[in-house]
Automatic annotation (TrEMBL):
The keyword Lipoprotein applies. This is Lipoprotein. Keywords: Lipoprotein, Membrane, Transmembrane, Transmembrane helix. It comes from the Bacteria. The keyword Membrane applies. Pfam families: DUF2291. The chain crosses the membrane at residues 25-45. The lineage of its organism: Bacteria, Bacillati, Actinomycetota, Actinomycetes, Micrococcales.
Length: 223
């Protein structure tokens, strides 16, 4: 026969008290660890720190002034002679896009350079007669006062949507580069008196119509 062990009421009370104290100690330990984690993971940010000010608002004027020279240099460096580019596009558009273009939401963006005689213009957009082009190809250059399109933003492939907070800022980046073009390139050109003049142009265009290029210049000089 086995004898049963009888625990007296005072002993049971002491055991319950120890159990409650042990649980309380565990919870206190957990709370201490959590508080230490919060304290160690908290960074004190000075009032003038950008993080304390929230996300910095996009400034188109600053963006254009800072980034246009880089975009300009990249377009000049990658520009292909218009006659060579036109021939390659006419021969094999897909291969030409693969070799020369940067893809954008509006289509392939090309960079090109040419010299030609300016024809008639309307709203600052001039036809330019360039020798050596396939028959039927029209080249036009936009000189303002309104510069439209996203070619300057898209031509290098280095400016992407993910660099901006939203679509509005992404669009404003394109407009800012266009505005800076007017300041740094076109301000010294009499764009109202180009007809009949010979000009040298380097710029970018989106190939929407294979028989018509609308070029946004990053360099334009009157010879």
């Amino acid at each position: 026969m086995s004898a049963s062990t009888t625990v007296s009421p005072p002993v049971r009370k002491a055991q319950r008290s120890l159990s409650r104290n042990a649980k309380r100690g565990i919870w206190i330990g957990v709370i201490v660890v959590v508080i230490l984690g919060l304290v160690l993971g908290t960074r004190v940010v000075p009032a003038d720190d950008p993080l304390a000010q929230g996300t910095e608002k996009f400034d188109p004027a600053t963006y254009g002034a800072e980034n246009f020279p880089t975009v300009q240099s990249a377009i000049v460096e990658s520009a292909v002679d218009a006659d060579v580019l036109a021939a390659d596009i006419a021969t094999d558009p897909a291969a030409a896009a693969e070799e020369y273009a940067v893809q954008s939401s509006g289509g392939p963006v090309y960079t090109t350079t040419f010299t030609g005689v300016v024809g008639e213009g309307q709203s600052g957009i001039y036809d330019v007669a360039v020798e050596g082009l396939p028959e039927g190809l029209l080249i036009r250059v936009q000189t303002g006062p309104a510069i439209n399109g996203t070619e300057l933003r898209d031509a290098t492939g280095e400016i992407e949507f993910g660099q901006f907070i939203n679509q509005i800022d992404f669009q404003n980046a394109a407009a800012a580069l266009n505005e800076e073009l007017k300041t740094q390139v076109l301000a010294d050109v009499d764009t109202a008196a180009l007809t009949g003049k010979t000009i040298e142009v380097t710029g970018a265009f989106t190939l929407i119509n294979p028989s018509s290029w609308l070029v946004t210049p990053v360099e334009l000089s009157v010879q």
